[in-house]
Amino acid sequence: MDPTDAQTACFEAGIKFGSLYHQFAGTPLSLDSADSLATAMEEAIENQPHCEAVTVDIREDALADALADGPADYTEFTGRFAEIEIDIDYEGERVRARMEMDDGYPLMRLVDVAE
Amino acid sequence: MDPTDAQTACFEAGIKFGSLYHQFAGTPLSLDSADSLATAMEEAIENQPHCEAVTVDIREDALADALADGPADYTEFTGRFAEIEIDIDYEGERVRARMEMDDGYPLMRLVDVAE
Amino acid sequence: MDPTDAQTACFEAGIKFGSLYHQFAGTPLSLDSADSLATAMEEAIENQPHCEAVTVDIREDALADALADGPADYTEFTGRFAEIEIDIDYEGERVRARMEMDDGYPLMRLVDVAE
Amino acid sequence: MDPTDAQTACFEAGIKFGSLYHQFAGTPLSLDSADSLATAMEEAIENQPHCEAVTVDIREDALADALADGPADYTEFTGRFAEIEIDIDYEGERVRARMEMDDGYPLMRLVDVAE
């Protein structure tokens, strides 16, 4: 069947999450550069169609812990260093999706689908 | 409202498309390396959950045209050099999505949502 | 033969250029998000060892021209939208490298090697 | 001072390493997809100028160990899952560079510079 507008809104939410994650995974990241990376991720993905808002919160405690365990003062951006929320509006169908830690691993999921 | 399984299947399809595109955009690409890049894209994204199949067809004519116009025998992978189809199965809800050229630009869209 | 310190400094400069380019190529980019992307690129790569400074200037005229030609108000970051300068100091050997347009294509090159 | 050809060869070697690493870091990776990713990395980077050969060996034991520790049958490509060797020839100056594990962390270095 052809997709409904709500299903397309969910598809668009997924595109934004996959884009954000795989564009920026691997970026050199320190406590000093965390804010600028978060802002760039938000503004870059908000360019994409039907994307109302992107919020990236760097998990600074997790980042500090990882840096304390390693030999350098920076590491690579990966999912356990951020919580991300994305709001989509496709033809009036509004979708909210989130990436957050679940049992030690980052999980992307739809949290709300509303007309 | 909580998402339906079909909506989640559409979200998962979007994640795979965004992942594939932004992981591999910018990869150095020539006619000689097109096959290995296509195979790696397919097998990498098929690792992701609920992903049944990924098919990447490099648009070799478009690539040859771009190389003929430029100064080098390679360019960077971007959407106009591939048609991509992705099949998702989430809890029995099956979704097919595709990226193909639309009026000169690559467009990602859901093509079928079925129980 | 083993590399000299100056040769290693040149190798380090190359690593930073390849990293910056291929980490961020493909990022959704508009006139509104250009500043935050440039700042994130600078701060991310400055985390890497032996990297003294990174300067990214978005070529806003080239970006505006590309957007005027296309159907959307954003495009993907690629080399023709930036001039980049990177300063390396490896064991007192200082290297400056630059990416700038050369006959219509972005070219990375060493501009100065000094003790 | 202007760079020597040997210094430029070292710069080119660095570009290839940074490119390879940051293009492919974050790619979904399993034991089944390791070979296709390695081949694509080699062929993609061999497209770049002055690049004679790229060899990517996936460290399958390290990958198997990481998968045994995690909840999924795939992970993300990062430096500890590969040993990489790159050969450059710039105007007859030949450079070999390598990425391999050093005290638990991947290290990129020049191994030989020869006329």
Structure overview:
The structure is a homotetramer of 115-residue chains. The longest helix of chain A is centred in the N-terminal third of the chain and has 20 residues, at 5-24. The first copy, chain A, has helices at 5-24, 34-46, 60-69; strands spanning 28-29, 51-58, 75-76, 82-90, 93-102, 105-114. In chain A, strands 2-4-5-6 form a four-stranded antiparallel beta sheet. Chain A has a two-stranded antiparallel ribbon with strand order 1-3. Helices cover 37% and strands 36% of the residues of chain A. Chain A is α+β, with helices and mostly antiparallel strands. Chains in contact: A-B, A-C, A-D, B-C, B-D, C-D. The A-D interface holds A 21-22, 25-26, 70-72, 76, 78, 103-105 and D 21-22, 25-26, 70-72, 76, 78, 103-105.
What are the defining features of this structure?
homotetramer; alpha+beta; four-stranded antiparallel β-sheet; two-stranded antiparallel ribbon; 36% strand; elongated
Characterize the biggest β-sheet of chain A.
4 strands, antiparallel
Strand order of the largest sheet of chain A: 2-4-5-6
Please give the alpha-carbon distance between the first and last residues of chain A: 20 Å
Strand content of chain A: 35-45%
Largest interface: A-B, 28 and 28 residues
Query: Averaged pLDDT of chain A, please?
Result: 96
Q: What structural category arises from helix and sheet content of chain A? A: alpha+beta
Work out the radius of gyration of chain A: 15 Å
Helix content of chain A: 25-40%
Low-pLDDT segments, ≥5 res of chain A: none
As an assembly, this protein is homotetramer
Number of helices of chain A: 3
